[in-house]
Structures are given as C-alpha cells and as structure tokens.
Design a protein that fits this description.
The chain has 562 residues and is of the alpha/beta class. The chain contains 14 helices and 21 strands. The strands form 6 sheets. Strands 1, 2, 7, 8, 9, 10 and 17 form a 7-stranded mixed sheet that branches. A 4-stranded antiparallel sheet has the order 16-11-20-21, with helices on one face. A 4-stranded antiparallel sheet has the order 12-15-14-13, with helices on both faces. α1 links the parallel β1 and β2. The chain is globular.
Length: 562
C-alpha cells in the first residue's frame, strides 16, 4: 500500500498528537501513524503526575522563573532557545488544553499547583495525581476524533525514512497485523516516537520506547546529541509486589505528603550527599539516584537492594484525604502505608538526549522535524521534574506548525521537493528476508537490557562501557542484516528482529557518548571521572558515516549557565 500526505507524523503520544493537530490547523493534510493504538501506546498515557508551567495559579510566577530553574537543573548543558520554548510556549499550551477540556485541577477558581523538586515555587499543574497522563491523552484523542482531516493509522511500525536528493520524502513501514509493507510519502515528516527506556532491564516506559525515532533519524543522516544522558527515576517501586499500578506512582505521594527516604538503619540519608530533606521532597532525580545507589553499595540498602520509603508517620486519615481510593488499591496489594514502608530503587525513566533540532524543530536533514522526548538539547544533563509533558506540548505544536510550513513551500515550488512515488527499491531488510532466525531475538533483547543496566546505567566506568560496547556489537553481528521471513501475517520474530536492529544502534550511541564524556554531570556519572569539568560544557553530537559513528563537540551558549 502507498499513502501520501503533506505531513507525516510518526508517534502518537502527546507530542505526536499535538503536532498532527497543529499541522492540520495550518492547512496541511496529515497522516498520523503509530506502532500501537493511536494515543494509547506512548509514555504520555502512562504519566501519572504533574506538568510544570508558570501559569501563576498557586502564587505569582512568570515563565522566566521556570526557565531559570530548567537551566539550573540542566547543569549548564541546556540549549537556551529550546528551554525557552518549553517554558514560554508551554504556558500557552496548558491554557489551550484547558479550553479543550482536559480538566486541570482548580483551587479557589485558579489552577491548583504543587511544588516539585528543582522548582523555586509551586508550579506544577495536574488533573489528578494518578490520572494526569491519561487525561491528557484522552483530551488529545478526542480532538483527533473531531478532526477527520487527520488520517490515523495504528499498528504500523515505521522501519526506515526515505531520503531522496538529500531530503526526507517519506517512510517505509510494516503493518504488524498483515506483515505487508506500507510506503508513506510526505513533504515533511515529524518524529515523535518518545525515548529509549526499553533499553534497560528496569524501566517505567511502554514496550515501544526502544529508541526507534533516534535510529530512524540517525540512519537517514540526521544528528543526535546528548545521548549519554539517561534519567533514572530514583524511587521506582521495588517491593513488595505491586500489581496493576505504575512503578513510579510514589512521586505524587512525595509531592503531596513528603515521605521519608530511609536506609537499612531506618535513617534519612540524603544529607550525606548534599541534599537534606527532613521528610520533605526537595532532592533532584540525579542526586536521589546517586544517594540511593551509594547507600546500597555501602551495605545500607533495603533487603531487595534499594531504599525504604516511609509514610508511617502519617495517619490513615491524612493518606485518604490526599489519595482516596488509591489507598484501597494499595490495600488489595497487601500494602498498608501506616504500618509498613515500601522499597524503592532507581529505574530508567526518561532520556535527555535525542535528535538535534533548531528553534523550529527542524533537524539537520531537510524535510525532517522532531518533537517531544525524541528531541535532544532542551533538558541538558538532567530534566527538571514536570517538564516532560510541557515539552511534548510545546515541541509538538511547534513541530506541527513548522512541518506544515515546509510542506506548503514544497507544494508551491515543485522543484524544491517532490513526493516520493513509493516505487523505489525497498530497504534491504525487506527485499532480502531469509528463513527463521538462528538466534532468539526476544532473549537477545533481554540480554541487551542487562548489558545496558550493568554497564551503561546510572554510574559508569571506562572498563564497563568498553565491555558493554563489545557485547552490544556481538548482538548486532549475531542478528545480521537479513531478517527472518516467510510469514505474511503478524510475526513476533520479525518484530523482535526489527526492534533489535534499532535498539542495538541506539545502545551503541548511548555507550559511545558515555565513554567519550570523561566527567560526571547530571544523569551521566563516571565513577572514574568524578565531578564537573568546565572543558566538558559541550554537546556530543553523533552522526552515522560509512566508517561508523562519528562524534563531534558542539559548544553550548553561555546563557545555559543559570
């Protein structure tokens, strides 16, 4: 099947849906595709917590205050123009979402806002402490349903971008149910496929966050930056067993009630690492991850290798007033917070790096744009709490507008860009499909996740990174360049092979950049190179060349120093 449109949007989380809506509002025909169901497979729908924006509901605020906090959290590596877009245009998007009926919580007629780590005031809006992401996704899906001009296609896994005469002119995809190839021509494409948390053994993301968008962009010729900066959520649920609830659910509890992080001796310990809390929630994620990991290494961890999170100092009434029926859901899991603490540990949660873009979301490849977590640079070395959905809104809206403008230029000037007719040669992996695989690709994905967790996790060394790179390359060689074939319907072995093809490339990018950066900054911690190094206030940019990955250093504007 061959389809064409002015704008192709790949990925349907908040960024992708917002991009599609904005491109259509600006007069473009749009196809929105996702390997899952539209609006239900990305990270947005799983987000339970809050969204940062200087709307001034709880106290006087201005986007410039939010901007300064974002730069400070980014440890000197934020791209100021991108961070400014998040903080300034994010306010407009929050208000637009309100008009669309998302249902931001109110207090005395104004936006209800709460404090979050790294912010200088209460700035984070929410719908409900455990329902913000689903409400955001539901609202954007509703807008899509009411916009029939946008063609929505789920269960379509984009495997390659198509480049003609140095421009992105579309994509090739696999229809998961039928196993058929689909070609998608467009004057402009937007990558909004989210992050790479699936690369790690313990993660908070859905199964389709294996870094597809990064691999698509890199193979097509676009640059990636800041790939070494993977954010680990410090208090992912570890024990006891929790069924039917998100592993990062404890953040809203800490937002609202504080909660005490304790070691095996039932002592609060974050003050040992420069961030005393005293029952409050003020520590940033990179410092919390470091503190918990070091307590475990020192033999002061909880029984399952994490830390205790205790709300035992609170009454059941206080807990119910704050979280109502959630307390009953915990009870069904055998958890009574008034009587026992839970165990928490760092878990891969977000990626600060990604595709390099300018202030219009344009990549280094003409015709290709990016949005949301697929974009690198705005968060620097560490993302400020609450900025993820704000970034998805702001970057999605801007990418949609920019892609529509590029498509309009292409339509008006046929010599500038030409729709790919879909009759060119298929990617090699499609035209040369072989027999059944020699290796179990599902097992190799598990192996890759272990390699990344052990060697390219929160704390890294030269030896560990070199070992990880060698083992990643061994997996890449094992799966080869020829995928399994012979099945023309849903083929999980083919899908696993395709996932590994993308995941190994992205894993190499993360490990190579981490090996190159010989300092510790934000979410990147080199135990053999502790502390910040002023000479490393640079972005590491990666590009695919015939000889492999090339790495270059790009200066960061002085303004990035908050």
């Amino acid at each position: 099947m061959h389809l064409s449109s002015d704008v192709l949007v790949i990925g349907s989380g908040a960024a992708g849906m917002y991009a599609a809506l904005q491109a259509q509002r600006d007069g473009a025909s749009v196809i929105l595709v996702d390997r899952s169901l539209i609006g239900r497979g990305g990270a947005t729908v799983m987000a339970q917590m809050t969204v940062s924006a200087a709307v001034g509901g709880a106290c006087p605020d201005h986007w410039e205050h939010h901007y300064r906090d974002t730069l400070r959290a980014g440890r000197g590596l934020c791209e100021p123009e991108l961070a400014r877009i998040v903080c300034e245009q994010g306010v407009e998007c929050i208000e637009e979402m309100d008009r669309w009926g998302v249902g931001w919580a109110r207090k005395d007629g104004r936006y209800a806002q709460v404090m979050a780590p790294g912010h200088d005031r209460a700035r984070c809006v929410y719908v409900d402490f455990l329902d913000t992401g689903p409400a955001v996704s539901r609202t954007l899906r509703t807008r899509l349903v009411r916009t029939p001009e946008i063609r929505r296609i789920g269960e379509l896994a984009v495997t390659d971008l198509v480049v003609r005469d140095g421009e992105c002119v579309g994509a090739v995809a696999l229809h998961l149910d039928s196993g058929e190839t689909v070609t998608l021509a467009a004057h402009a494409a937007v990558i909004a496929t989210g992050g790479l948390t699936r690369l790690y053994r313990r993660n908070s993301g859905p199964a389709n966050t294996g870094g597809d968008g990064y691999a698509l962009a890199l193979r097509a010729g676009a640059d990636l930056i800041d790939m070494e900066f993977v954010q680990f959520f410090p208090i992912g649920h570890l024990a006891p067993r929790l069924i039917g609830m998100d592993p990062i659910m404890w953040d809203p509890f800490r937002y609202k009630l504080g909660g005490r992080l304790l070691n095996a001796d039932m002592e609060e310990f974050t003050d040992r690492y420069g961030a005393p809390e005293d029952g409050r929630y003020v520590i940033t994620r990179d410092l919390a991850t470091y503190a918990i990991t070091k307590e475990v290494e020192a033999g002061r961890g909880s029984p399952h290798g994490g830390a205790w999170l205790s709300f035992q100092h609170l009454s059941e009434t206080a807990l119910r007033d704050a979280f109502g029926p959630v307390i009953d859901r915990l009870a069904r899991n055998g958890i009574d917070l008034t009587k026992t603490a839970v165990e928490v540990a760092p878990i891969a949660h977000y990626h600060m790096g990604g595709i390099a873009v300018d202030a219009t979301m344009r990549t280094s490849l003409p015709g290709l744009f990016a949005a949301g977590e697929a974009v690198g640079g705005s968060n620097g070395a560490n993302r400020l709490s609450g900025n993820a959905i704000t970034e998805a809104f702001a970057f999605g809206r801007l990418a949609g507008a920019s892609a529509a403008s590029a498509a309009r230029t292409a339509r008006d000037n046929p010599g500038v860009a030409r729709l790919w007719p879909g009759d060119g040669p298929e990617p090699r992996w499609l035209s040369e499909r072989g027999g059944r695989p020699e290796h179990n690709c599902a097992a190799l994905i598990v192996e890759l996740q272990s390699i990344m967790a052990d060697g390219v996790g929160p704390f890294r060394t030269q030896a560990g990174l070199r070992d990880a790179l060698a083992r990643i390359e061994a997996i890449r060689r094992a799966i080869g360049d020829t995928p399994p074939g012979g099945v023309n319907t849903f083929d999980p072995e083919l899908l696993d092979w395709l996932d590994l093809r993308q995941m190994t490339l992205v894993a190499q990018c993360v490990a190579r950049a981490a090996l190159e950066r010989t300092e510790s900054r934000g979410a990147h911690q080199r135990e053999d190179h502790p502390g910040l190094d002023a000479d490393w206030r640079v972005h590491l940019a990666l590009r695919s060349t015939p000889d492999g990955l090339a790495i270059a250093r790009h200066a960061v504007p002085q303004e990035a120093l908050a």
